[in-house]
Amino acid sequence: xxxxxxxxxxxxxxxxxxxxxxxxxxxxxxxxxxxxxxxxxxxxxxxxxxxxxxxxxxxxxxxxxxxxxxxxxxxxxxxxxxxxxxxxxxxxxxxxxxxxxxxxxxxxxxxxxxxxxxxxxxxxxxxxxxxxxxxxxxxxxxxxxxxxxxxxxxxxxxxxxxxxxxxxxxxxxxxxxxxxxxxxxxxxxxxxxxxxxxxxxxxxxxxxxxxxxxxxxxxxxxxxxxxxxxxxxxxxxxxxxxxxxxxxxxxxxxxxxxxxxxxxxxxxxxxxxxxxxxxxxxxxxxxxxxxxxxxxxxxxxxxxxxxxxxxxxxxxxxxxxxxxxxxxx
Length: 329
What we know:
By secondary structure, the chain is α+β, with helices and mostly antiparallel strands. Helix content is 22%, strand content 41%. It contains six helices and 16 strands. The protein has helices at 2-16, 178-204, 209-214, 222-231, 233-238, 276-282, and strands at 30-41, 44-53, 67-73, 82-87, 91-100, 107-119, 123-138, 141-144, 159-164, 170-171, 240-250, 257-263, 285-292, 295-301, 308-315, 319-326. Strands 5, 6, 7, 8, 9 and 10 form a six-stranded antiparallel sheet that branches. The protein has a six-stranded mixed sheet with strand order 12-11-16-15-14-13. The protein is globular and about 65 Å long.
């Protein structure tokens, strides 16, 4: 309902741009958090709107975001208004674009740098966070989406800039403008490409006896197997059923829906489960949810967020991953 009201509010705002301003006694429910931005991919363009909810705080019993992002195609025969994602922070400090080169995540995205005031017993200042919204072609149209599959870079989230009130030390956020964030993204992209090439070189090298034994069944005990499976990509490649069943949560009307697919061969991207170092960096936890006979389920999640993946295994001569469930909303 909130999203529907927001859509009507956006349409009203767009129409209202050509009318007289509202009087002080007639407050607008929808405002502008940031001026509209034109996004393009090739010769296709869309206009992106950042619309503030001026009635936030007056609604009780339900969470209302501070603002929401919508886009509309430019010069479309059949105009449409499309919801993208919410904005929780008080201010949009910058909107910019960056194109990744790494093949598995190649493409152009719009990045929204948000900012809000922080004042508590420990810190006084500002907090900056980055929201990535990939651009993609949906048939003959350009679209903007929020993708939940990859957790955001932790260094670009809740980056503090101000004073530590406990010791009076100045805290400086290294990523509070478009230039510094683009450099960080470029460095990460280059590092990922270099690591990928190194991994490909290793895979092309002749296998030794040690390589063969390294893909032996790690253990009939599921917890021990899961530890080895999550740490070593070669174990994952050896003990994933093909085709691998994938179930993903997608937006639906009125409720989210589960979309099923199957992946095999080059469609499978490893590692399917990140290793412990990456999990710790990104604040993820991997636990055994249940184990019954020849079936077991592991769950990967980020506490206090909607990032939740389930990995379902079956046991034959060894445990094998047969299905991945993405419950992220």
